[in-house]
C-alpha cells in the first residue's frame, strides 16, 4: 500500500523535476539533458545529504525517482504551453516538496544519531541543494543565494522541530509542525515579498567613500 | 603484465585528460589549472560513481591516472599546434574512453550487488560526468546537455548489456558488446548528425501564443 | 583547553569564510546566500577530502565552523567598509588558513593509511577546493586555475613533508616545515608576481598558422 508520505514524496519529486526541466528548456537543452537536470534537481539534495551522512542515496534503492522524472519530462514535452502558465500550481507543489524533503532530511539524520544542529543543516540541504545543482548545471548564479526566502524556510522549520522535540512532543507532531512551518514561511515570504537584506558590494563603498 | 583493458583504460584516460586540457587552454588557464581540469575530466566520472557506491575512488589506489594526465599535459604543451588539428584522432580515443569507462562502471556496480538499472546509470556517470565537471570548471553550460548523442550512447550500451545478460550471455560477451554499442552509437550519431530533440523554451510559447 | 592549532584553525576558517562572504557581497547575495558561500568556502575543501577518504566531515562533529562563519558574516555586515580595505590582513590569514588546512589534510590522510602521493593531493584539496566551490557558486571561472601560485603552494609544502618524512624527521617537524613552506611559497609568489605559464589557446595557433 502507498502511504500518504509516499504520495507527497512523489508530488515533491515531480515538482522539483519539473522546475529543473522548465529551466533546462529555457536554455534549449535536448531531452536527455533536460531529463538529467530534472533528475538532479529532484534527487540532488537528498544525494548530497546521504553522501555526507555516509549512507547509500535513496534513489539508488528504488527506481520511483527515475520514473517520476520521466513523467515530468513527458508532461513538459506534451503540455509545455500549459506548464509554463501554471506558475501557481508549480509553486504550490514545489513548496510541498521543500517542506517534505526538509522533514525527511531531518528525521533521517536524527535516526542515524546525528545531533540536531547537523540534522537541521541536512534538512536544508535535502530541500534546497537540488536547486543549487540545477542552477550550476544551467550556468546561472544559484537563485536561492539571491532572492526570496527559500532555504531559510527550511531552517525555520528545523528550529521548530528542535524546540518541539525539546519540550517533549512526539516525532509525528514535530514532523507535521516542521513541515507546515516550512510551507507557511515560504508562502508568507513570497506573498508579502519578504526578503533578507543583501550585502553591500565593493562598489557601494567606493562610491560612498 | 599489462592487460589489453589496461591499455584501453590508459588511452581513454589520456583522451579525456587531453579534452579537459584543450578546453582549459582556450580559457587561458595556467599549467596547474589545466592539469587539474584534465585530471578532473579523466577521473571525475569514476570518482562520482565510487562516492555514490560507497567505495574508495580508483585513482586513489594507483598513481597511473596522475601520470597519464601529466603526459597529456606535456603532450599539449609540446605539440599544441598539432593536438588542435588532430580532432579525428582525439574523437576516436574519446569514444574509446567513453565505451570503456561505461563498461567498467556497469561491471563495477553489478559486482557490488547493485541492480541493473543502477548499474546503467553508474556506467553513464562513469563515462559522461567527467565532461560535466570539466564544463562547470571552465564555466560553460555542460556540452552533453545540449549537443550530440553522448551520455545517451552509454545508456544504449547499458541496455544492451542488460538484455544480453538476461538471455544468459557470459559477462565477457556482454562487456564487449556493450562497449561496441556505445562506440558505434556515438560514431553513427556524429557521422549522420543525429540529435535528440530540444525542448521549447518560454520564448517559443510567448511568440506563438 | 584550546590548543595553538585550534586557534590557527579558527583563524583560517574565519579568513576563508570572509573571502567567500566578500565575493558573495560583490554579487549582491542576501545574508543567507553569503553565509552559505562563506561556509562552503571554509569547509568545502575538508568536506570533499573526507568524502573521498570515506570518513564523516569534520564540520559535522563540532559546530565551531558554523559559529566561526557566523562571526565572519557579522564582521563583514558591521565593518564592510573596513573589511574591503584590509586586503593585506585578509591575505595574511588566508595564507595561514591555506598552510594549516594543507598540513591537516596531509596528516589526516596519512593517519588513515593512505600513501604519500594521495596525502599530498588531499592536502591540496583541503586547502584549495573550498575556493573552487566558492567560485562555482558565484558563477566565475575558479581563480586558482588562472592566476597566482595557490594550490601549487600546497603541493610544494606536501613534497617537503614527504622528503622530511623520508629522511626520518618527526611528524611535528614535518608538519611545521610543510606549513611554513606553503606559507612562504605563496608569499614569495605574490610578492614577486611569480606565475605559472599559461597554455596557448586555439586562437594563438590560428593567428600564427
Describe the structure.
The structure is a homotrimer of 209-residue chains. The termini of chain A are far apart. Chain A is built from eight helices and no strands. In chain A, helix 5 (116-137) runs antiparallel to helix 6 (151-166). The first copy, chain A, is globular, with a radius of gyration of 18 Å. Chain A is mainly alpha-helical. The longest helix of chain A is centred in the middle third of the chain and has 25 residues, at 87-111. Chain A has one domain (4-196). Chains A and B meet through helix 1, helix 2 and helix 3 of A and helix 5 and helix 8 of B.
Main traits of this protein?
globular; mainly alpha; homotrimer; 209 residues
Layout: helices, strands, pairs:
The structure is a homotrimer of 209-residue chains.
Chain A (H helix, E strand, L loop, with lengths): L3 H23 L4 H23 L10 H22 L1 H25 L4 H22 L13 H16 L4 H21 L10 H7 L1
Helix pairs in contact in A: 1-2, 1-3, 1-4, 2-3, 2-5, 4-5, 4-7, 5-6, 6-7
Helix content of chain A: over 70%
**Regions of chain A with pLDDT < 50 over 5+ consecutive residues?**
none
DSSP strand (E) fraction of chain A?
under 5%
Number of domains of chain A: 1
Return the structural class of chain A.
Answer: mainly alpha
Order of helices and strands of chain A: HHHHHHHH
Overall geometry of chain A comes to: globular
* Number of contiguous helices of chain A: 8
| Integer average pLDDT of chain A | 87
Oligomer state of the chains in this structure: homotrimer
Radius of gyration of chain A: 18 Å
Distance between the termini of chain A: 66 Å
